[in-house]
C-alpha cells in the first residue's frame, strides 16, 4: 500500500510533522511518500492519503486546499486522514475555558469532512522560531499582545503524532489484510 503524506508549511514546523508521519508509516511497513501539497501534485499513484497544513487565521495554506479540491473525487474513494498544525503554547484552553484544539480547527475541515469523509481529522500544536518569521508576522509579534499570540518554542507533541501515525498504519494494514482475504 502506497501512502501520500502531503503537507503545506510556511515555516517548516508542519513539514517536520509530515516527515515524522512518513517515517512512522514506513517503520510500520508501509510505502510512504512525503511531498509538499500543490495543485500539480498527482494523487493517482497513491492508495491512501494523509494531508495536512499549517493553519493561519483559521484556514489552511493554499497548496493543500488546491490539492484536495483538485483530487476530491479520487480522495473520496480512498482512505484519507487530515491534520492541521498551528496552536502555539502550553495552554490547552483559552481564557474562556474553550479547548484550543477545537477552536483552531481550520475552516476547511468542515468542507473536507463532508466531501471526503476522512478517517480522522486532527489538530496538532505547532512550533515557532521568531528568527524565521516573515516581516508582517515579525511585526505582529512585536505588538504588546503579539508574544502572547505567537509564543516562541516547539509545542509539538511527538508522542501524540507518532501514535496517530501508528493508528493510521494499523488501519491501513487491516484494510489491506481484508482486501487480500486474510
From TrEMBL:
Residues 3-169 form the Flavodoxin-like domain. Keywords: Oxidoreductase. GO terms for biological process: heme biosynthetic process. GO terms for molecular function: FMN binding; menaquinone-dependent protoporphyrinogen oxidase activity. InterPro entries: Flavodoxin/NO_synth, Flavodoxin_dom, Flavoprotein-like_sf, Protoporphyrinogen_IX_DH. It is an enzyme of class 1 (oxidoreductase). Pfam families: Flavodoxin_5 (PF12724). PROSITE patterns: FLAVODOXIN_LIKE (PS50902). Its EC number is 1.3.5.3. This is Menaquinone-dependent protoporphyrinogen oxidase.
Amino acid at each position: 500500500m502506497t501512502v501520500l503524506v502531503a503537507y503545506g508549511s510556511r515555516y517548516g514546523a508542519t513539514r517536520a510533522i509530515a516527515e515524522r508521519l512518513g517515517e512512522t508509516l514506513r517503520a510500520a511497513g508501509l510505502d510512504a511518500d512525503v511531498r509538499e501539497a500543490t495543485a500539480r501534485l498527482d494523487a493517482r499513484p497513491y492508495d491512501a492519503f494523509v494531508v495536512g497544513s499549517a493553519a493561519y487565521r483559521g484556514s489552511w495554506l493554499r497548496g493543500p486546499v488546491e490539492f484536495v479540491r483538485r483530487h476530491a473525487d479520487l480522495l473520496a474513494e480512498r482512505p484519507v486522514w487530515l491534520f492541521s498544525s498551528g496552536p502555539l503554547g502550553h495552554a490547552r484552553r483559552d481564557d474562556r475555558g474553550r479547548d484550543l484544539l477545537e477552536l483552531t480547527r481550520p475552516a476547511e475541515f468542515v468542507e473536507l469532512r463532508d466531501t471526503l469523509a476522512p478517517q480522522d481529522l486532527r489538530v496538532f500544536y505547532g512550533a515557532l522560531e521568531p528568527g524565521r518569521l516573515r516581516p508582517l508576522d515579525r511585526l505582529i509579534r512585536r505588538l504588546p499582545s503579539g508574544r502572547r499570540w505567537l509564543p516562541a518554542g516547539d509545542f509539538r507533541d511527538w508522542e501524540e503524532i507518532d501514535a496517530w501515525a501508528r493508528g493510521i498504519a494499523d488501519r491501513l494494514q487491516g484494510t489491506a489484510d481484508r482486501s487480500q482475504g486474510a
